[in-house]
Write a structure and sequence with these properties.
Distance between the termini: 22 Å
Shape: globular
Strand order of the largest sheet: 1-2-3-4-5-6
CATH class: Alpha Beta
Number of domains: 1
CATH superfamily: Gcn5-related N-acetyltransferase (GNAT)
Helix content: 25-40%
Strand content: 15-25%
Radius of gyration: 15 Å
Largest sheet: 6 strands, mixed
CATH topology: Aminopeptidase
Number of strands: 6
């Protein structure tokens, strides 16, 4: 189930983001760029006041997080998308991206912007966005903007 979240869930959201990031990118991103933890509580609290947070829950547990920010009258920026490793490859990321597209359309936006680290060894991340979700985003150097697909 996807729902907009509130401050009460920030610790759990932070744990999902930091664990997912560490397990996906440690040893892939060069040590001089890899940050563990990826975000601090202060970082996520600051983001919370400027962005919209959605969570995906399974049996009451947050297993996925999507964070986006309306950037202009036409563009929404997908800032964070993390799924716990044991819940990946089950369509949760795809559902969260579809939810972001739907919310963007609801408020009249025309484009999603996506930023990836573009580390060539993190092929699974790049492949996720190249596939059908995110409207079949054609990757360009970040930041990436693509028109939303027709509804």
């Amino acid at each position: 189930m996807i729902r907009k979240t509130d401050l009460d869930n920030l610790e759990e959201i932070l744990a999902v983001i930091n664990r997912s990031d560490r397990e996906a990118y440690e040893g892939v991103i060069p040590d001089e760029y890899f940050k563990n933890p990826y975000l601090s509580f202060e970082d996520i609290l600051e983001e919370f006041y400027h962005m919209t947070f959605y969570v995906y829950k399974v049996d009451g547990e947050i297993v996925g997080v999507l964070v986006f920010k309306v950037e202009s009258k036409e563009i929404c920026w997908v800032k964070q998308l993390f799924i716990l490793p044991e819940h990946q490859r089950r369509g949760i990321g795809t559902e969260l991206m579809a939810h972001a597209e739907g919310k963007a359309r609801e408020i009249g936006l025309k484009k999603l912007r996506l930023r990836t680290g573009m580390w060539s060894k993190a092929y699974w991340t790049i492949n996720f966005y190249k596939k059908g979700r995110g409207g079949g985003l054609a990757l360009n150097p970040p930041p990436l903007s693509t028109p939303l697909p027709p509804s």
